[in-house]
Amino acid sequence: MSTTTNGIEAAPDTRIRPGGEDDLEELTRIYNHYVVETPITFDIEPFTVEGRRPWLLEHPDSGPHRLLVAEQGGKLLGYATSSAFRAKHAYATSVETTVYVAPEHVGHGVGRLLYASLFEVLEREDVHMALAGITVPNDASRRLHERFGFRPVGVYEQVGRKFGRYWDVAWFQRRVSREG
Questions:
Q1: Can you say whether residue 73 is alpha, beta or left, with left for phi > 0 and alpha for psi between -120 and 50 degrees?
Q2: What pTM was estimated for this model as a whole?
Q3: How far apart are CA 74 and CA 18, in angstroms?
Q4: Long-range own/partner contacts, residues 145-150 (CB < 8 A, 24 or more apart)
Q5: What span, in angstroms and rounded, lies between the C-alpha atoms of 131 and 96?
Q6: Tens-place pLDDT, residues 109-162
Q7: Neighbours of 116 (CB within 10 A)
Q8: Cα(131)–Cα(90) distance, rounded to whole angstroms?
Q9: CB distance 52 to 124 below 8 Å
């Protein structure tokens, strides 16, 4: 039997919860996989656990900037975040969202479960718009975002250089609040 969150099925022992200090080592491992192996993040050097701590501290248990983790049997399967979109105050009700799934758990619905949970939380916060930048090509991420109501709004061409080439970033957005 599986559990359902917002219509998304998951194994009965999969739990979504806020991420914290005890998760930092595994969160860093998951992220570093994408840093080293893929162009989907424009970081080019892997992080140490200590180097990743400031990022963790930007995601408290309340407010618009969240870190949620999917855990099964004590093992982290992945995480989703909402972070500040831009530093200027007028952007405060907009967040940039992202999902990273442990490479060994990609394709099992973890990203969908994390996003469903993240948007449930964000709907109770003062968040009006969610934005996501997706390195092109990345069909799986595009499909995930479209499934959650994101629509494409433009492409920044050749804005990141990694692995000896330039990459485009497609931008997507969706409304979170029911106002406006």
A1: left
A2: 0.91
A3: 14
A4: 145/172, 145/174, 146/172, 147/112, 148/115, 148/116, 148/119, 148/174, 149/174, 149/175, 150/174
A5: 5
A6: 999 999 999 999 999 999 999 999 999 999 999 999 999 999 999 999 999 999
A7: 20
A8: 15
A9: no
